[in-house]
Amino acid sequence: MKFLRGPGPRQEEVDQMLQAAMSAPDHGALRPWRFQLIRGEAIGRLADVAIDAVKRSGDKRMTPEKEKSVREWMAGVPLFVALAQKIAHDNTKIPEQEQLLATGAAVMNILNAAHMMGYGAFWSTGLGTYVEEVQEALGFDPLDYRFLGYLAIGTPACAVPAVQRPDYREFTSEWTGVPA
């Protein structure tokens, strides 16, 4: 649900969403997920930082029209949650891919909680996610964190259309252990 508006979740609801993240499966209990809440006037500052950094990165897609559209969209979203995975440099037991999966599960729990509370929410890898300057501005040093984008959370601005999903059988088989 990309088209969001206010009101956003109350602080008690944000607390519940973030607490839901703590229930994610997490081998070794490393809790590698890290979140930065961005709301109010900070959203405009994020827009400035991200758009300017994307332009400096040489990305030609940030045209004046795109910039205007991004700024207008961001101004309507009441809450962004910046997402990162803390890299456990000193851990030799839990593979980094499992830490990344745990972080993804924590983020999915936030999304599920937001949707269960009636909010619209989605995970975006726009807004300069792959530009280190943006990551650093959010306090996620690239040497210690893998920046994963943002959740945008608010009230759906329109009816949520039903999405046609593929049949799970197209992606599933059964292994029997018997050689073919």
From TrEMBL:
GO molecular function: oxidoreductase activity
Phosphoprotein recorded as keyword: no
Annotated keywords: Flavoprotein, FMN, NAD, NADP, Oxidoreductase
CDD domains registered for this protein in UniProt: YdjA-like
Every Nitroreductase domain range: 3-154
Documented EC number(s): 1.-.-.-
InterPro entries (UniProt xref): NAD(P)H_nitroreductase, Nitroreductase, Nitroreductase-like, YdjA-like
Cofactor: FMN
Database matches in Pfam families: Nitroreductase (PF00881)
Cofactor-binding details, from the entry: Binds 1 FMN per subunit.
Residues reported to bind FMN: H27, W123, S124, T125
Enzyme class: oxidoreductase
Superkingdom per UniProt: Bacteria
Family named by the database record: Belongs to the nitroreductase family.
Protein name: Putative NAD(P)H nitroreductase
Organism: Bordetella flabilis
Lineage: Bacteria, Pseudomonadati, Pseudomonadota, Betaproteobacteria, Burkholderiales
